[in-house]
Write a structure and sequence with these properties.
alpha/beta, Rossmann fold, 2 domains, ten-stranded mixed β-sheet, globular, binds ligand HBZ
């Protein structure tokens, strides 16, 4: 090994040089130092993880100055701050992103090279924090990146799950879930802050009794108290001095169990109590787009929300901002309804614990919250059974009743004699078993309500939240999602970045509209040649990876046709499968048919309890087994399921796509963000008029987007007139043959039972209207195949897609939030010397 002998050089440098220096020399020295003093290893016996850890600490040292200076500046200025409350932050690996945002990727790369190490291998070593399911959690992570890059004072608040989203394995074609152990090798990016721990009450009952002045008050007597310990992770802006904080709460027992044991003698009971407390932050619920009415889930929600609100109050006290000014100091963004119990919790804190009159407290609360809705699916709208809610949060339930009483008076005032409206809008659903409707609570308690794409917001106004739109039209607004170009272009696609930079400079990284300048080069044949070559190199990398992990050979000249996202019936991965089977059937009918070679790549997890979604995964693998081996196919089609789709893997796969599948039933996908990540890396989209697809098509131009399928209105109309999937099946011979092949057992070793539930769904009621969209999808795919044969035309479309995607940076989204209703200003951070800062 070529590690330097630090004892020879140590006398020539100050300690802080090795802690902060950015030269290749100091980086190497710091690395060697960390390997020895933190990992306790000689290079000769160090594992890859030791090297990764040594490098992570080297990088962490280099961002601490920004982090501390940022905190100190915010604290001194008492800056107005965005508190982003989210049950999920799907951060992905930290090392690479921090290298990019610090601007030291190249130096570190060289330092590692000189030490005989490969930076890319060390980056691969990192266990990613997968503290989210999919789009919603990843959006929160992209927004933190943009907030820091735009120098906006902000804090992300969430839960430090011990186990994040499960790892996915595939056994015999089926998904198998494996516990995610992201913390087992240690997490170098977080700092625990036990001094800012808080306590959260749960359960018990309320009592009305006189306080010391003889005034009657409500007291909550809980039967459980848990402690929340904050763990802070720095969030660097791209080439700014700003480093904001992601603060995640870990649940612990209030007292160590020996205390209880000593007190009561119930040693085992005390240990049990400790386990119960710690369970709260144990595991992420692995469902996306479906709510689970589980007690532990509600405990998680109140736990992180209460910890976060108390933390905000602590910050205000420390900065000497009076509590009345809560809405001036903080704007709390609710990432879906998961944190919406913050509304009654803030009321409880103000009224019960700070003795504020109800009206005043409600005035503060209403001005502090803003709510983002992420779904139109009825099964994803959170509702809590009154019994369960009242058992865990008796005081909050009383507060919700009071909010509801006053709210319904308001409704009555605005819409007299409309009792059906009262029933529809009540925060309590009384149609059967009684429930608290969390989305309605969020609407009443927030001053802003937004959807995540233009179409989605319109549908919220028209449909799901129509009554609330009529009541509070001024609250509704749209904020189309965006993604960070730092992670999803600079870090994930260095080849594309080099090519972009050589033509248009690197301003686009901070101002994505700069990509427009690429349009000037679309007529340059040399540039198109370079573009094509770049894509081939990327595809070769992915092909090598596929070979290594699945032993399947794929042809890099075939079209890479990719669908990577969570598995859900509304996302219609099985419509994609029907296309594959159709192509296969055409080959079987006519082996010499001239078809455009395609490699179909799938990635994504299914919720463990979602049987049909898991069956779709099995179907993909079963079809792959047949198609990939059939000599008639002659390698013109390949079907590959890539297991364990996560952020790290997403970064690898997006750049390689030629075609991006965004094929949800119109009106079901709120926005989608994968659609943006693919297009930003030069894929052409085949998609429905759903979510942000609508806006992507508007931006890139209809001629550079493959549109198919029913519109939302047509979906509604067809449902209304009585949709008969069976008729489509009987009228379209290709469709019939495709479904018959599945039903007959052709892909399941002759077993017709295996995929029967899926076939029954399709021919029975086909909720997501695959059969209605099939013909349009197939015909459009035929046009895609045609277009791909003219590779020069394809490359033009690819370039124009990238050039016109500027709107979909999360920087644009965050700017919109800031200007429209957060009303927060950037704060410049001055970097002070480490020595002065500690003086
Ligand atoms: O949020 C997704 C939407 O489906 C997608 O269209 C949108 O682009 C994205 C960001 O706005 N929603 C989710 O990812 N939802 C969840 O993951 C989820 C998790 C737990 C739940 C409910 C939904 O209880």
């Amino acid at each position: 090994q070529t590690l330097p002998n630090s004892s020879e050089t140590v006398t020539e440098v100050r300690v802080e040089d090795d802690r902060t220096g950015l030269s290749v020399e100091t980086l190497k020295r710091a690395f060697a130092d960390n390997l020895f003093y933190i990992q306790g290893k000689f290079p000769q016996i160090a594992s890859k993880n030791d090297f990764y850890m040594a490098l992570a600490y080297t990088v962490r040292d280099r961002l601490l100055r920004r982090w501390l200076n940022t905190a100190e500046t915010y604290s001194r200025n008492a800056s107005r701050t965005v508190a982003y409350l989210s049950a999920e932050f799907l951060m992905g690996p930290q090392l690479g992103n921090n290298l990019i945002n610090l601007g030291i990727y190249d130096q570190v790369n060289q330092a590692m090279q000189e030490l005989g190490l490969d930076l890319r291998e060390l980056l691969e070593e990192e266990e990613e924090p997968g503290l989210g399911n999919g789009g919603l959690g990843r959006l929160a992570a992209c927004y933190l990146d943009s907030l820091a890059t735009l120098e906006i004072p902000s804090l992300g608040y969430g839960i430090r799950y011990e186990f994040g989203i499960f790892d996915q394995d595939i056994k015999d074609g089926w998904q198998v879930e494996i516990t995610d152990k992201w913390l087992s090798a240690g997490n170098p990016w977080e700092l625990p802050r036990p001094e800012w721990s808080v306590e959260v009450k749960l359960g018990g009952h309320t009592e009305k009794r006189a306080d010391e002045h003889g005034n009657f008050k409500i007291y909550w007597v809980p039967n459980q108290v848990v402690k929340g310990i904050p763990y802070d992770t720095p969030i660097l802006g791209y080439k700014t001095n700003t480093a904001n904080t992601l603060r995640l709460w870990k649940a612990e027992a209030v007292e160590s169990f020996d205390f209880y044991a000593f007190d009561s003698g119930d040693y085992l009971g005390a240990v049990h109590q400790k386990t119960v407390s710690e369970n709260i932050s144990k595991v992420l619920y692995p469902n996306d787009n479906s709510a689970q009415g589980k007690e532990l889930r509600l405990a998680q929600q109140i736990f992180f929300v209460s910890c976060s609100l108390k933390d905000m109050m602590r910050i205000m006290e420390q900065q000497k901002v009076p509590l009345e000014q809560f809405p001036e100091k903080f704007v709390i963004q609710l990432n879906d309804t998961h944190p919406s119990v913050a509304i009654p919790e803030l009321m409880r804190l103000l009224v019960d614990e700070y003795d504020m009159p109800w009206e005043k407290a409600w005035g503060i609360t209403k001005q502090s919250f803003a709510y983002t809705n992420h779904t139109l699916l009825p099964e994803a709208l959170e509702r809590w059974p009154i019994g369960l809610f009242g058992k865990m949060l008796p005081r909050h339930l009383e507060i919700i009743y009071e909010i509801n009483k006053r709210f319904l008076d308001e409704v009555r005032m605005k819409f007299p004699d409309d009792t059906d409206r009262l029933r529809r809008m009540s925060l309590i659903d009384e149609s059967g078993e009684r429930y608290v409707r969390m989305a309605f609570l969020a609407c009443v308690g927030s001053y802003s309500i937004n959807g995540v794409a233009a179409l989605h917001t319109e549908l919220l106004k028209k449909d799901v939240l129509h009554d609330f739109y009529e009541m509070y039209p001024e609250k509704f607004n749209n904020k189309t999602n965006g993604v960070t170009p730092r992670r999803f272009m600079v870090l994930s696609n260095p080849r594309l970045c080099r090519l972009l930079n050589s033509k248009i400079g690197d301003e686009w990284i901070k101002n994505l509209y700069e990509l427009k300048k690429l349009e000037a080069f679309v007529e340059d044949p040399e540039f198109r040649r370079q573009w094509r070559e770049m894509k081939l190199e990327i595809k070769q990398d992915v092909a090598d990876y596929i070979k290594k992990t699945t032993d399947i050979d794929v042809n890099v000249n075939s079209m890479f046709d990719i669908q990577a996202k969570r598995f859900h019936e509304y996302k219609r991965q099985h419509l994609n499968v029907l296309h594959i089977i159709t192509l296969y059937n055409r080959i079987k009918a006519n082996p010499d048919i001239d078809i455009t070679p395609r490699t179909f790549l799938f990635g994504g997890k299914a919720a463990p309890g979602y049987y049909i979604a898991k069956l779709i995964i099995k179907l993909i693998n079963s079809v792959g087994d047949i198609v990939n081996r059939d000599p008639d196919v002659r390698d013109r089609l390949k079907v590959v399921f890539l297991k364990d789709f996560n952020v790290k893997f997403a970064q690898r796969i997006y750049p390689s796509a030629d075609l991006s599948e965004q094929i949800s039933t119109a009106g079901k996908e709120a926005s989608g963000t994968g659609n943006m990540k693919f297009a930003l890396n030069g894929a052409i989209t085949i998609g429905t008029l759903d979510g942000a697809n609508v806006e992507i098509r508007e931006e890139v131009g209809a001629e550079n987007f493959f549109l198919f399928g029913l519109t939302t209105e047509e979906v509604y109309a067809l449902k209304k007139e009585g949709y008969q999937p069976w008729e489509y099946y009987q009228k379209d011979p290709e469709l019939k043959l495709a479904i018959d092949r599945i039903a007959s057992g052709f892909f399941s070793h002759g077993d017709p039972k295996l995929f029967k539930p899926l076939v029954d769904h399709l021919l029975g009621n086909d909720q997501y209207m695959l059969l209605a969209d099939y013909r349009s999808y197939i015909d459009t795919q035929d046009r895609v195949s045609e277009a791909y044969r003219d590779i020069d035309r394809w490359v033009r479309m690819s370039i124009l897609n990238v050039a016109r995607m500027g709107k979909f940076s999360s920087d644009r989204s965050i700017r919109d939030y800031c200007e429209d209703f957060w009303k927060v200003q950037p704060v410049n951070i001055e970097l002070k010397e480490y020595v002065q800062a500690t003086a």
